[in-house]
Design a protein that fits this description.
5-stranded parallel β-sheet; 13 strands; single chain; DUF4935 domain-containing protein; 11 helices
């Protein structure tokens, strides 16, 4: 591990679903709280994450409005405490609650927020007009926040005189980091944890060796856990996903999040292929009711689809006393959430 300093980009928090209680963000919080690493974000990142929370709240309330409209026919049957609770869900109070979580994370993990006040405006303009990273591939004004964030970080690194890990999946940030001697670009948070844990080389090597030795068993266990998750069909949210069947699962990348003498938290990228039946209302043959302003659906459709995608998954393994075997695999989760979205590359002649 080359440095204790890390910069965390907005995309990292988005990849984790803005859920500070999940495995990776909880681990990041603990390392920062215990001052085993120094976490930096820019003022731009702080505001962008706050904006993501506000957007999530807005979308949730839009769904609530739709649900309340659908429930109008049951108005007299609904418990008053339910309707009262739903009516109290206003946007400003929910945003305030979500931002309190964000601010608590920043404070508790000793996150240092870098001010943009010290950036060099001439350098910013030079990057813009030369088309240098992050203003690449025709991206211009939309990349100004990233440019301000990176130049703020550059100024901070020059002040402390140490290297820093920059964690982001943004290719433009990688292009910028590749030109800075003090910046070490990392694609995602799990990769950083693996670097951190490899500093405790013996334990990490033991865990990696056990994972390789037990790969067939792990794949079977992970496949069973995955196929028993809840699924939704992105192409048609009114449809149900039925009879999911696992076709294959392959581990693409393995990273150790935490490790001690008896327990390890693991994050993997896994390519998963599956098949499922999709059943939903057949709007292609529905009739439009001009008075009620809605479709009258007479029938439903059912098709079988095949899906394949790469998922970030987390799980915990327990080790025996001699560090020779994995005794238990548990706490399985898919990082995107408890419900997995299935996307099918649809075309106009297909459902």
């Amino acid at each position: 591990m080359e440095t204790k300093n890390i910069f965390v980009d907005t995309q990292v928090f988005v990849q984790q679903g803005l859920k500070f209680e999940n495995q990776q963000l909880r681990r990041l919080y603990e390392l920062g709280k215990d001052e085993r690493i120094r976490i930096f974000i820019s003022e731009v990142v702080k505001q962008e994450v706050a904006g993501k929370f506000a957007n999530k709240v807005h979308k949730a309330l839009q769904s609530k409005k739709s649900m309340m409209k659908e429930l109008e026919v049951l108005e007299e049957l609904l418990p008053p405490e339910l309707t009262s609770a739903l009516e109290k869900c206003n946007e400003s109070s929910l945003i305030e609650v979500s931002l309190s979580k964000w601010n608590a994370f920043i404070e508790g993990a000793n996150v240092q927020v870098i001010s943009p006040d010290n950036i060099c405006n001439s350098e910013l303009l030079s990057l813009y007009f030369s088309g240098s990273f992050p203003f690449s591939d025709g991206k211009k004004k939309s990349e100004f926040p990233d440019a301000i964030s990176l130049l703020s970080l550059k100024s901070q690194v020059e002040d402390i005189g140490e290297k820093i890990y920059v964690i982001s999946g943004d290719k433009d940030l990688k292009g910028f980091c590749d030109k800075q001697d003090e910046f070490i670009y990392i694609n995602h948070l799990a990769e950083f944890f693996d670097i951190y844990n490899r500093s405790e080389e013996r334990l990490s090597e033991v865990v990696h060796r056990l994972l390789e030795r037990n790969e067939a068993w792990l794949l079977e266990a992970l496949g069973d856990a995955f196929i028993n998750c809840d699924f939704i069909y992105e192409n048609d949210y009114e449809a149900d996903v039925e009879n999911p069947v696992l076709k294959y699962i392959d581990i693409v990348e393995t990273n150790i999040i935490t490790v001690d003498s008896r327990r390890a938290e693991i994050s993997i990228l896994a390519e998963v292929g599956m098949q499922a039946d999709i059943c939903g209302p057949d709007y292609d043959n529905a009739m439009w009711d001009s008075e009620e302003k809605e479709y009258i659906v007479f029938d439903s459709y059912k098709v079988t689809r095949e899906f394949d995608s790469v998922y970030s998954m987390s799980f915990v393994i327990l080790l025996d006393e001699k560090l020779e075997n994995i005794t238990t695999l548990g706490d399985f989760s898919v990082d995107e959430g408890t419900t997995i979205s299935l996307h099918y590359d649809d075309y106009s002649w297909q459902k």
